[in-house]
Amino acid sequence: MLTHFFVTGTDSRVGKTIVSRALLQAMIAQGKVVLGYKPIATGSQELADGVRNKDAVTLQKSSSVSYPLSRITPYALSDEDIFTSHLPKNIFEQMTDGLHFLRQEAETVVVEGCDGWRTLITPKRRFSDWVVQLNMPVILVVGIQEGCVSQALLAAEAIIADGVPLLGWVANRINPCLAHYAETISAIRQNIKAPLLGEIPYLPRAESREMAQYLDLSLLNELSVA
């Protein structure tokens, strides 16, 4: 059984949180206890009751057990803070500690990244470095839009080159007007060896919908992570 895996995207705003929600819902439907974890998030807002990040809220509502947002997203940054915030020098260790805590509380933890695979969290440290350090299996979210074939192939090649397992990819239709949708999916399938785990159609207010039916996790059931 997969105890944890990492969800990355071809870019920002391709639907990583929506796919993470679908993955959590699909595993809950299988009777598993699962939790979402997004250690670093941008786009957060300072509210009267503290910092709030909508992605963290979506993961919180999609998990088997409700945990405080500070556990789900310990570093909730505004868009302006991502390069100016003073993240601690031991940021990777703290992210790992948070993951270990949640792993004790759930059978599987869905770890969502920030933006794409090569995202910098400090001027010299990439989010992917942490994933590689933990040898964490990866699921790639491809936002189906113009130019996504090249983005998908580049991202998949980078993940594989870094030496971590690419479990599969999920197509998220973020442009409902895109022509040649089927041909786009076919082109990516023929050039990425990892399996297509599902296709999520364009859905308004997807963060509040049930989406387990769009995924087929049977290919993941026999995988195990120490």
Please give a structural write-up.
There is one protein chain. The chain has 226 residues and is an alpha/beta fold. It has a single domain (4-214), classed as P-loop containing nucleotide triphosphate hydrolases (Rossmann fold). The chain is 33% helix and 21% strand. The strands form three sheets. Strands 2-7-1-8-9-10 form a six-stranded parallel beta sheet, with helices on both faces. A two-stranded parallel sheet has the order 3-6. Strand 4 and strand 5 (50-52) form a beta hairpin. It is globular, with a radius of gyration of 16 Å. The chain starts with a strand and ends in a 26-residue tail after the last strand.
CATH topology group: Rossmann fold
**What Rg do the Cα atoms give?**
16 Å
Put simply, the count of helices is 7
Mind telling me the CATH superfamily name? P-loop containing nucleotide triphosphate hydrolases
- The first-to-last residue Cα distance is 9 Å
Give the strand order, joined by hyphens, for the main sheet. Answer: 2-7-1-8-9-10
**SSE ordering:** EHEEEEHHEHEHEHEHE
Total strands: 10
**So what's the overall shape?**
globular
Short description:
This protein is α/β, with parallel strands linked by helices and 226 residues long.
